[in-house]
Design goal:
By secondary structure, this protein is of the alpha/beta class. It has 9 helices and 24 strands. α7 (about 375-380) crosses α8.
Length: about 475
């Protein structure tokens, strides 16, 4: 059935694939379908027609999956922060397992390996320790909106496909209740202050972003990103907020006067309290500044790192190379189970943080080096030392082929690959398999419930050792 005028098609959703989509069929063509669960029959709007396939999004569910539930969030699915909030959690886990398997088989061309069930999350909501919200003078109106007390003040999330408009959010199920409580107070203070939200089209206004962090010990950091430096104004806001919220131990102000839409800026100033937070992964403590990268789901991070240790089968005598080491969390977490760890990271500030974190924990067998891994791989700098195991945790784009080939040429016996993107993980696994390694086993870890994102841990062994 087709509605040519409205570009709608009736289609039954097929198997899940990466990106929160299903792979379906319509009139002999492949359909990459959004917002549909496997088995559901839907009316779908055709977004794009490309050679060999169609991109479409479900506009109406005709036959609903038994795994659908009611979402408690009034902003879902419009805000886009969740893709699976109206899906049973156990079924979300199954979807993620199937996606990882599909990527490894279809992209990586690997079939003979051990697949372990996904590590579930203890908490499927209120798990994020960092949230970023956007201010805007331009509000995106949802059909569920009721009344508008201030149309020119919005704080929340960018509306899909409307980069200048923001969905005004009062509460988010991703962040802990304490952050929601603080967020509500700060939102009200700022709405009453007369301070103008930023307008992305006109490049006017003052308030740009709000970044909030919370530690496992419920200490909160606020970073208010503004267009200009107005210390008296920001100081007054900080005083009002912190007077009623003793859990806030740090209030920062980042200045971003540029046109770029980012929560980073030219400088970050301490307004009140302490400059860094102290948080823990297992027994280890880490300093977190306003712009530091730190795993956003603390409850699952320890499970992920335990899985790395398990897959590495550490005996205490290994020299480990930690690629894309960030602020040193993996290296520090495994330090007692190895002889040494050498971490490489492009961002120099992260390396400084990693060194500081090692000092905080009185660790002496971890060292951290800043540099472009692709250039270091090309020059052979990475493997001037001999390493027994490589742990690699690359960004979403995966590893550059030159880095992969450098590892292959190094003859390192074992690689533990941690990935936040199963498609680039599978692509790199194929290169490693072509270079003489064998994917031995894989286990997904659910770090981000209610989203399609999934962490994957895999171990590759040099074939002659099997």
């Amino acid at each position: 059935m087709t509605d040519k005028k409205n570009k709608n098609i009736e289609v039954q959703a097929g198997k899940p694939i990466y990106g929160g989509k299903t792979l379906s069929q319509y009139n002999g063509k492949t359909v990459m379908l959004e917002r549909a669960l496997p088995g559901e029959k839907v009316m779908a709007f055709i977004k794009k027609k490309k050679k060999g396939y169609i991109e479409a999004i479900a506009s109406e569910i005709l036959e609903k999956s038994p795994h659908r539930t009611e979402s408690e969030c009034k902003y879902y699915p419009t805000c886009g922060g969740c893709k699976l909030r109206d899906v049973e959690y156990d079924y979300q886990r199954w979807i993620k397992e199937e996606v990882v398997k599909d990527c490894i088989t279809r992209i990586g061309k690997v079939k003979d390996y051990e697949f372990l069930p996904i590590v579930k999350a203890d908490n499927s909501s209120h798990y994020r320790n960092k949230m970023e919200f956007t201010f805007s003078e331009e509000r995106y109106y949802m059909s569920k909106d009721e009344g508008f007390d201030n149309d020119k003040f919005s704080l929340g999330f960018h509306a899909p496909k409307f980069y200048s408009k923001v969905i005004d959010v009062e509460y988010c199920y991703h962040q802990p209740e304490l952050l929601n409580y603080v967020y509500k107070s700060l939102r009200q203070i700022l709405k009453s202050s007369g301070l103008k939200p930023y307008n992305l089209l006109k490049h006017t206004g003052f308030l740009r972003y709000l970044v909030m962090r919370i530690t496992t010990e419920n200490k909160v950091m606020i970073n208010l990103v503004t267009k200009s430096k107005e210390l008296d104004i920001i100081g007054s806001v900080a005083d009002q907020l912190m007077e009623n919220h003793p859990e806030i131990v740090s209030f920062m102000n980042t200045i971003n006067s540029r046109l770029s839409s980012t929560a980073y800026g030219e400088e970050t100033l301490l307004i009140k309290g302490q400059e860094v937070l102290l948080d823990y992964i297992g027994e280890y403590k880490f300093e977190i500044s306003s712009n530091s990268f730190f795993q956003v789901n603390p409850g699952q991070t320890e499970k992920l790192y335990d899985k790395i240790v398990e897959f590495a089968e550490l005996k205490g005598e290994e020299n480990v190379l930690d690629l894309y080491c960030g602020v040193g969390t993996i290296a520090i977490y495994i330090n007692k189970q190895v002889k040494s760890v050498t971490g490489f990271e492009l961002v120099e500030a992260a390396v400084v943080n990693a060194q500081r974190n090692a000092e905080l924990n009185d660790i002496t067998n971890c060292k951290f080096v800043s540099g472009d891994l692709m250039q270091l791989a090309k020059d052979g700098e990475i493997f001037k030392e001999k390493f027994d195991i490589i742990i690699t945790d690359p960004p979403r784009d995966g590893m550059h082929p030159k880095v992969v080939h450098s590892i292959i040429n190094s003859e390192v016996k074992k690689i533990v690959y941690v990935s936040c993107n199963p498609s680039t993980f599978a692509r790199d696994v194929q290169l490693f398999e072509m270079g003489g390694y064998k994917l031995e086993k894989v286990q997904p870890v659910d770090m981000f419930p209610h989203t399609y994102h999934v962490e994957t841990v895999g171990v590759l062994i040099k074939k002659q050792l099997l």
